[in-house]
Specification:
Length: about 110
């Protein structure tokens, strides 16, 4: 089976959390020739909602939105717990390498003069 890239219009929050997506055809340049910006995930239209908008949603939309947001937040937390300590270890190792490199750079002029 051949895979093809998908393109989306999404509805989300201002922090980047997407709670609803609609798959669409690939967008083309408009009559004015302006290019459509498509991000790496295939999103080309983004509608960020304001806090007041939730009151106008149907009951089903509120349920879908709530379940999606909870899943997104739980996924963020899980990924952070899995990755954060590894990043801290890498940061410490990188700092040690930078310190050692600075020490070698300080010794370099003396070694070159010999």
């Amino acid at each position: 089976m051949r895979y093809r890239k998908a393109y989306y219009t999404v509805f989300g929050l201002k922090d980047g959390t997407i709670w609803f997506a609609i798959q669409k055809r690939k967008p083309y340049a408009g009559p004015s020739g302006s290019r459509v910006r498509i991000d790496q995930d295939g999103i080309f239209e983004w509608y960020a909602e304001s806090v007041e908008e939730e009151s106008s949603f149907t009951g089903t939309a509120k349920i879908v939105r709530g379940a999606t947001l909870a899943t997104c937040l739980n996924l963020r937390r899980t990924i952070r717990e899995m990755v954060e300590h590894r990043l801290e270890k890498l940061e410490r190792r990188l700092q040690a390498i930078e310190d050692r490199l600075a020490e070698l750079v300080e010794r370099l002029p003396a070694a070159v003069q010999r």
